[in-house]
Amino acid sequence: MMDEISPQSTIRPAAHRDSNTVVKLWKRLVTEIDVAAGYPDLHAAVDKWSDRLGRQIDEEKAFVAELDGKIVGFACYVGRTAGSGLQNRRTDRLKGPGLPIPLGVAYVTDLYVTPAARHQGLAQGLLGVIMRGAESTGFHTVWTNTSSRNKRTLSLLSKLGFAPLQGFQIPDLDNQVYYARAL
Ligand SMILES: CC(C)(COP(=O)(O)OP(=O)(O)OC[C@H]1O[C@@H](n2cnc3c(N)ncnc32)[C@H](O)[C@@H]1OP(=O)(O)O)[C@@H](O)C(=O)NCCC(=O)NCCS
Q1: Are residues 25 and 19 in contact, defined by beta-carbon separation less than 8 angstroms?
Q2: Under a CB-based contact definition with an 8 Å cutoff, are residues 60 and 78 in contact?
Q3: According to the per-residue pLDDT averaged within each range, which of 5-19, 39-53, 122-136, 144-158 is highest?
Q4: CA of 100 to the centre of ligand 1 (A)
């Protein structure tokens, strides 16, 4: 699953050789959206996050955006379908609220594009590739979460047809709301 967004930019599945770059981008993400305070031990969180990224790469659930051959963004998801036979693995559980992700729901855990590469459709491209890939592997819905103060992400999600998931608030994360879109 690969997408050319413009002659200069491409979305492609992440490979293990991309891990260090993606982890650096994740550190920028947590600093920028101001959730770093939620990780008192950022070092341990990075290790844990890297392990999960490794699994997402193995399962083709992690994607990078390249601009002029350089990785400038990424997005990844977790989730299981009824046919996957792996529905009890820990990756089915969200860390924050501990809410189990229903079977058939592809949960976008991370989305980031570096400031210099924004407003060129890369985030839309990343989510588009995830939605197509998830649909073709048997998922029926995509979920994600973001802060109700994150105007850029809210605008992007509504443009792509996401709506707030009623009745689900994330209790221990400030202003975080779930969004869902049927595939
Ligand atoms: C949110 C985020 C991922 C968006 O990335 P992006 O690549 O700039 O997103 P896109 O370019 O696909 O879309 C952003 C805007 O650019 C516009 N756009 C898309 N292609 C465009 C183009 N070729 N020219 C001009 N504008 C364009 C889109 O219409 C959209 O407009 P809107 O904000 O009015 O809806 C990025 O700002 C980011 O990483 N923020 C910090 C982390 C974050 O909030 N992550 C998500 C929640 S955890």
Answers
A1: no
A2: no
A3: 122-136
A4: 29
Domain ranges in the chain are 3-182
Cβ–ligand 1 contact at 146 (below 6 Å): yes
74 lines ligand 1 (CB under 6 A): no
Name the CATH architecture for the domain at 3-182: 3-Layer(aba) Sandwich (3.40)
The secondary element (H helix, E strand) that includes residue 9 is strand 9-13
Q: What is the pLDDT of residues 23-72, one digit of tens each?
A: 999 999 988 876 656 666 777 888 889 999 999 999 999 999 999 999 99
Q: Are 175 and 140 in contact (CB under 8 A)?
A: no
Q: Which residue has the least CA distance to atom 33 on ligand 1?
A: 152
Contacts of 120 (CB under 8 A, 6+ apart): 5, 6, 9, 67
Bridge partners of residue 164, in order along the sequence = 179
| Residue 145 pLDDT exceeds 90 | no
Ligand 1 proximity of 123 Cβ (cutoff 6 Å): yes
Place 91 in a pLDDT band, splitting at 50, 70 and 90. very low
Q: What gap in Å lies between CA 4 and CA 6, rounded to an integer?
A: 6
